[in-house]
Design goal:
Largest sheet: none
Low-confidence stretches: none
Structural class: mainly alpha
Number of strands: 0
Shape: rod-shaped
Strand content: under 5%
Oligomer: single chain
Helix content: over 70%
Order of helices and strands: HHH
Radius of gyration: 17 Å
Amino acid sequence: LQVLPPVRKKVFEMHRLGDKSYNEIARELTISVKTVEMHISKAIKQLRSLINVLSLLSLMLKEIINNLHG
């Protein structure tokens, strides 16, 4: 989660880890519910993208290791 911008990280953590509703988060952070929705959506996209990159790097590393040993 460290890759997320600070506010997006906070919103994501409050929702996913703190189990707070969008309305609760919006009230606590004095932002609109639409802004909360945007932060959650962008956080999920950003994290999915990072997972995809890491998966690809893992496959590439595995291939390199296999080529070194055989």
